[in-house]
Amino acid sequence: MANGVARTSGYGTYASDSVSKFIPELFSKKMLKNFYQTTAFNEIANTDYQGEIKASGDKVIIRHTPAITVADYAVGGTLSYEVPEVANTELNIDKAKSWSFKIDDIDEVASDLNLMNAFAADAGERLKIAIDTECFDYISTKAAASNMGDLAGAISANINLGKAAAPVVVTSATATSIIVDVNQVLDEANIPSENRWIVLPAWFVALLKKSDLKAADITGDSVSVLRSGVVGMVDRTKIIQSNLLKHVTDTTKECFYCMAGTTDSVTFANQLVKTETIQIPTSFGQYMRGLSVYGRAVVQPTALVALYATK
């Protein structure tokens, strides 16, 4: 029996599982899609300096406005003149990610799929994932001192955002209030409510949907969720889901650096994105490769919050 069909003695078997294989095995023309992690860094960072980087140079010096001291004054008093100074921030284009593969011309022609396009599309998605992962790892320790730890809050200094060996434990009963605490930290740092975001792992978002807020109140269109992980809004804050946040094992628990802030806190610039195909000089086939050169910087640490949490 071959392919489920019985054969009378003396008739040859030409199916795909026979020796001769005259009848080809049919493969699905649709490749199994990889379930790429949602990229979210483009949702939280600004690209204010990308134009300058693309024009020329590998560094942007970002200047900040210094804080001027306001003092009491009495008639006839003597003024003390300060020299306003504040350190600048450097956006260095010092990161690069690449990918490369080769395909023999015979394999490309023989396949019923466009292998070059399929592999290049996969590489592009994984490039975005690699950049997101690196960027989230970078910002995980860059929040202002008053915006992290168990004594957070520039004014109250008593908001628990978790620390090493003592992460904030999130439940469905506390998920919403924790986001409110994060916003209080930003409020105490005098950060505007516009363009606030928080990036959370899938388990945190699930607990949020099970909280008193209920899933129906976390509004977000399905297109946005599929495209960028945007789930909705809670307490003036855009909820973004990502599997790429930095996480570590701490006291036997998996702990996550759930980052929050505004788009003014982080900047990103991509200087070079290049994809090219090259004929293999020593055989029949093609090389394909891609490169991305980029930089990222935290330009306003007081507008960035690090919540160290576990389930």
Description:
By secondary structure, the chain is of the alpha+beta class. It has two domains: 1-29, no CATH class; 31-311, Alpha-Beta Complex (phage-related protein like fold), CATH 3.90.1690. The protein has helices at 41-44, 50-55, 105-110, 115-139, 175-188, 202-209, 222-228; strands spanning 59-62, 89-92, 95-104, 168-169, 196-200, 230-234, 237-241, 247-250, 253-262, 266-279, 285-298, 304-310. The protein is flat, with a radius of gyration of 27 Å. Residues 219-228 have low confidence and may be disordered.
Concise summary:
This protein is α+β, with helices and mostly antiparallel strands and 311 residues long. It has helices spanning 41-44, 50-55, 105-110, 115-139, 175-188, 202-209, 222-228, and strands at residues 59-62, 89-92, 95-104, 168-169, 196-200, 230-234, 237-241, 247-250, 253-262, 266-279, 285-298, 304-310.
- Give the averaged pLDDT, no decimals: 85
Give me the Rg, rounded: 27 Å
Q: What's the quaternary structure here?
A: single chain
Which of globular, elongated, flat, extended, rod-shaped describes the shape?
A: flat
Architecture of the largest domain in CATH? Alpha-Beta Complex
Helix tally? 7
Write down the secondary-structure element order: HHEEEHHEHEHHEEEEEEE
How many E-type strands? 12
CATH class of the largest domain: Alpha Beta
Which percent range fits the helix content?
A: 10-25%
Question: Which structural class should the secondary elements be placed in?
Answer: alpha+beta
% residues in beta strands: 25-35%
